C-alpha cells in the first residue's frame, strides 16, 4: 500500500444530469455509493442500464476521473473542469485507467472503494462539448476501443471525503485482470 494520489474535487447530484456540481465533501455509503447521488443504490441506477435489467448489481456506485485527462483534453482545445463529465471524485497522481480490476482505493481517513471497471462514455458527452466523445473513446492502433473517461467502483467501507484527501492504492493479488467496460 502506498500514498500515490490526491482527491482534487468531489461531486454529487441527486438528479440524473450529465454534470455534477463540485461540493466541499461527499459521504460514501457501503454497498450503495455517494449519499444523495442519483446513481447510489444496490442495483444499477444508470437509466440505460435500468432499461435493460433493473435487477443487475450496481457496479457503478462511484465514478472517478483523473485530473490529468482534463489537461490532455485542454491540449486538444477542450475545457473540462471537475464534475463536468459526471464523476464523483476527481483524482491526481494515479493512473486510474492502468489499475487492475478489484484494486482497493482508500480515500481519506475511512472510505474504501473497489475498482470494478471502465466507464463507458456515451453520446451525451458530445452534447456537453461537440467532438469530445472522440477524445475519450476511440479505436487504438490495435483496433480495440480505448475508453478514457474514468473508472467505476463500489463502496466497500463508507466515509467522508473531500478535496486534499490522500488516496492509497492496494492492487489485488496476481494475476491482475484488466479493466473492462461496466
TrEMBL record:
Residues 21-170 form the MOSC domain. Residues 169-182 have a biased composition (Pro residues). Pfam families: MOSC. GO terms for molecular function: catalytic activity; molybdenum ion binding; pyridoxal phosphate binding. Residues 163-182 are annotated as: Disordered. SUPFAM superfamilies: PK beta-barrel domain-like. It comes from the Bacteria. Gene3D superfamilies: PK beta-barrel domain-like. This is MOSC domain-containing protein YiiM. It comes from Actinokineospora alba.
Amino acid at each position: 500500500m502506498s500514498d500515490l494520489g490526491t482527491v482534487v474535487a468531489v461531486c454529487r447530484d441527486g438528479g440524473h444530469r450529465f454534470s455534477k456540481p463540485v461540493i466541499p465533501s461527499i459521504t460514501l455509503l457501503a454497498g450503495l455509493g455517494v449519499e444523495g447521488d442519483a446513481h447510489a443504490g444496490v442495483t444499477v441506477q444508470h437509466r440505460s442500464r435500468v432499461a435493460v435489467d433493473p435487477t443487475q448489481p450496481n457496479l457503478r456506485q462511484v465514478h472517478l476521473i483523473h485530473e490529468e485527462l482534463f489537461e490532455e483534453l485542454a491540449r486538444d482545445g477542450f475545457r473540462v473542469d471537475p464534475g463536468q463529465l459526471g464523476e464523483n471524485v476527481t483524482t491526481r497522481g494515479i493512473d486510474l485507467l492502468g489499475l487492475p480490476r478489484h484494486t482497493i482505493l482508500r480515500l481519506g481517513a475511512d472510505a474504501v472503494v473497489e475498482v470494478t471497471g471502465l466507464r463507458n462514455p456515451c453520446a451525451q458527452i458530445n452534447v456537453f462539448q461537440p467532438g469530445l466523445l472522440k477524445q475519450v473513446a476511440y479505436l487504438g492502433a490495435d483496433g480495440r476501443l480505448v475508453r478514457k473517461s474514468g473508472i467505476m467502483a463500489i463502496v466497500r467501507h463508507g466515509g467522508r471525503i473531500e478535496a486534499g484527501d490522500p488516496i492509497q492504492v492496494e492492487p489485488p493479488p496476481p494475476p491482475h485482470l484488466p479493466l473492462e467496460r461496466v
